[in-house]
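Weekly puzzle thread! Below is a chain. First person to post its structure in token form gets bragging rights.
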Amino acid sequence: MKFNRVFLIVLDSLGVGEASDALKYDDVGSNTLGHINDARNLFIPNLEKLGFLDTLKLSNKKDVDAYYTIASTNNPGKDTLNGHYEMMGIKITEPFKYFYKEGFPKELINEIERQTKRKVIGNVAASGTEIIQELGEQSIMEGSLIVYTSHDSVLQVAAHEKVIPVDMLYKYCEIIRRITTDNKWKVGRVIARPFVGRKKGEFKRTTGRRDFSLNPPYKSVLNYLQDHDLSVISIGKIYDIFNGQGITKKISSGTNKEGIDKILDIMDKKFTGLCFANLNDFDCLYGHRRDVNGYADAIEALDVEIPLMLNKLNPDDLLIITADHGNDPTFKGTDHTREYVPVIVYSSVFKEPKQLDKLPSLADVGATIAENFNVEKPAIGNSFLNKLK
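Winning reply:
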């Protein structure tokens, strides 16, 4: 074992330029980090010192404190599930279904209504906080389920806690999860979204969210670590992405700030294994909403926290910062973008960190973690551990 603890942080959607197959996804010209930097001239001295901006051009800069490169994402979807699965060595052959353009098929809605015995309203791609204001009063009057989706492969179900108790909402979501295992409707996650409040403008989502995911199709690096009695600590939505498979400790977080605080807290704890965190504000608050300034502010806010992280790392710790896909806030539409993702690798013991060769797959990150802990090699990916000196 070269490193006792590995901290893997995913900056959700922070891509670094159109991928080689961007044309297939109609994403030619996308560049999340590049276009944000063009618009705002980012002030991120700490990330820059780690080679972060150099991932935009792979300039082989000498004066950096970390190894840096970019990786291809090869799974068929350009979303959270596809990116994280690939990162941990899982190749997806049967893509999940997405319904953000036209909503869910009438046949599926009819089946949900038949099995839950509840009317379904909504059936659009929407912001969860906005749709409960729009349809909350109707849902209360009718006892109906507000069903909506997003640009991820999800089916979300909102209901007022006083009308449909949370336990009942969970049962409905379990029913919907079973229905959507059918290939023609197979979504990655069904999400229960209870809310409270008296009227429009006052409705608020509660902390009773619950995700009903599919298990990964086979074992990932997370399972191999767990099988060898190593810690696998998840922060943010990592637990839900993998449906808890291979996770030994779940830590919930909402905002980027909460996630970073949880990471800093875990850095003070003794363990051997992986801490795997996702910072989701970049994607859900700024990428999809095409908010360039908000995205830029979030990157600069992360930069301020980087010295705190580095100061907490031990000589036998490894920090990897990457992303799962792109979501260029300057690009057309509101969808994710098919991009390369950055890979930053830091340890205080590195003698001469520099640019690494471009990684053919994001799975190389998981393969590197697996080799470090001497566990089984994942189904896809090749380790670059021997390049870290």
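Puzzle host: Confirmed. Bonus trivia for everyone else. The mean pLDDT is 95.
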